[in-house]
Design goal:
The protein has 433 residues and is an alpha/beta fold. The chain has three domains: 150 residues, Nitrogenase molybdenum iron protein domain (Rossmann fold), CATH 3.40.50; 189 residues, Nitrogenase molybdenum iron protein domain (Rossmann fold, 3-Layer(aba) Sandwich); 30 residues, no CATH class. It is built from 17 helices and 15 strands. The chain has a six-stranded parallel beta sheet, with helices on both faces. It has a six-stranded mixed beta sheet with strand order 2-7-6-5-8-9, sandwiched between helices. Strands 3-4-15 form a three-stranded antiparallel beta sheet. Helix 14 links the parallel strand 13 and strand 14. Helix 4 crosses helix 7 and helix 5 runs parallel beside helix 6. It is globular and about 80 Å long. The termini are far apart. The model has no long low-confidence stretch (mean pLDDT 95).
């Protein structure tokens, strides 16, 4: 089966209408799934550990007979780390150190404004969240990079308890994922998954500590559960399929571009790869390279479905038109395969992560460059940012007045309160002067 991505021009009269249709995605709209997730959450809230255990036995085919069998000790995590090959252990350590160093730079400190008004002190206190839940896909799926990317910013922020849940279908667990949890200083690992794990993290059970925020990737059931518990706890985001947008100005080896597109497409059939260039002949070369290279790849079937179903190849007139398209799409990952990415950067308003130049593929950011790979998808880069230390802290405003300071602003408060008809507010301020 040949690769046949959707190809069109940005100058077409109905281009942006088509673009909206072709990039639109809604992950958690299935009514039946919503109802079933609601039932699971309600059951966990009512019956706690017993509900979690029964659902884990049924849905994950896990043979555990007691909830305690689903909780891993720190020694087990360390053993998984020690058992890794030297190559994998070394790669994990390099990635961990780079990710940790990047997120250290995101630390925020409490502050006070310079005292312009004697007797009035204003400022902000920074405090970490106390308990965070990390969801990690399990079974045959092995995403140690997701463990590092989600746990490290929480630990850098100073979160005392990072509690990880990871399903073990059929009792199967990834030792690399557990090793990453050890490296990232995860405090507790529980081998449960699905909507029941999200519910347990949100509301707590006898054995699962309720948390303040839930982060981490999951399937549609997990995403639906996260959406339903939002408000009781914070969540990172409702993430859609992963996506990459590559803007190329030739010359550049078309094989490189083809493989960068594939690196996104191999995630799953719904992942979206987008290629933009003003050179129509070059676009032809990339499509030819894609068809030549895909048969040799391990996940060629998934890549083929993704490319034929979701890949877009867009011809633009020039760089200015390309920038307009990029900002409209607001991609999760953006590769600027040009000679002068620094000149182009100020024009990019909406993108989760920007990979600068021809030697910076998205794959480096996914694993070990340092910045977080948890990024806003489905156009959310218009208003959202990558996961970071700032997602695991709280900011409290600080206001302190002396008697003299209160007199300066209490009259203002009183006047405004009376204008709103709130007499108690006014009198509370007036008592101070």
């Amino acid at each position: 089966m040949s690769l046949d991505p959707t190809r069109f021009k940005a100058s077409d009269s109905n281009f942006f209408e088509r673009l909206v249709t072709l990039t639109d995605w809604e992950l958690v709209s299935d009514v039946d799934r919503q109802a079933r997730v609601s039932e699971i959450i309600s059951d966990v809230r009512k019956r706690g550990d017993q509900a979690v255990l029964e659902l884990t036995q049924k849905l994950d085919r896990n043979p555990a007979t007691e909830i305690s069998q689903l909780i891993l000790s720190a020694d087990e995590l360390e053993h998984s780390y020690d058992a890794l090959s030297n190559d994998v252990r070394g790669a994990l350590e390099v990635a961990c150190n780079r990710i940790w160093a990047f997120h250290e730079a995101q630390r925020e400190s409490s502050w006070r404004l310079p005292e312009k008004d004697p007797g009035i002190t204003l400022g902000q206190e920074i405090r970490p969240m106390q308990r965070v839940g990390l969801y990690v896909p399990g079974g045959k799926a092995a995403y140690p990079s997701s463990v590092l990317m989600n746990a490290i910013p929480a630990k850098v922020a100073g979160v005392p308890l990072v509690q990880m849940v990871v399903p073990a279908p059929g009792g199967e667990l990834s030792s690399v994922v557990l090793a990453a949890a050890h490296l990232a200083k995860v405090d507790r690992v529980i081998t449960i998954g699905g909507a029941q794990a999200v519910a347990a993290l949100a509301y707590g059970t006898e054995s699962v500590t309720g948390v303040d925020k839930i982060v981490g990737p999951g399937n549609a059931w997990v995403a639906t559960a996260k959406k339903q518990v939002f408000g009781k706890v914070g969540i990172d985001m409702i993430a859609g399929p992963s996506e990459v947008l590559i803007y190329v100005e030739p010359p550049m080896n078309p094989d490189w571009v083809a493989m960068d597109l594939f690196s996104q497409a191999e995630h799953d059939e719904e992942a979206q790869s987008i290629l933009i260039s003003s050179d129509a002949d070059y676009l032809d070369l990339v499509i030819q390279a894609m068809n030549r290279l895909v048969p040799a790849l391990e996940r060629s079937e998934i890549i083929t479905k993704s490319i034929n179903h979701r890949c877009l190849v867009i011809e633009v007139v020039d760089r200015s038109e390309a920038v307009d398209v990029i900002n409209r799409i607001a991609p999760e990952h953006l590769e600027l395969c040009v000679d002068d990415p620094e000149l182009m950067l100020p024009m990019i308003q909406n993108a989760g992560a920007i990979f600068m130049g021809r030697f910076t593929p998205e794959a480096l950011g996914d694993y070990c460059a340092g910045p977080n790979h948890v990024l806003p998808t489905s156009g959310a880069a218009r208003f959202a940012s990558p996961l970071g230390v700032y997602d695991f802290i709280k900011r409290s405003s600080v206001i302190q007045c002396t008697a003299e300071g209160a007199k300066k602003i209490a009259r203002v408060a009183s006047t405004l309160a009376r204008s709103e008809g709130l007499t108690a507010h006014a009198k509370s301020a007036e008592y101070r002067f």
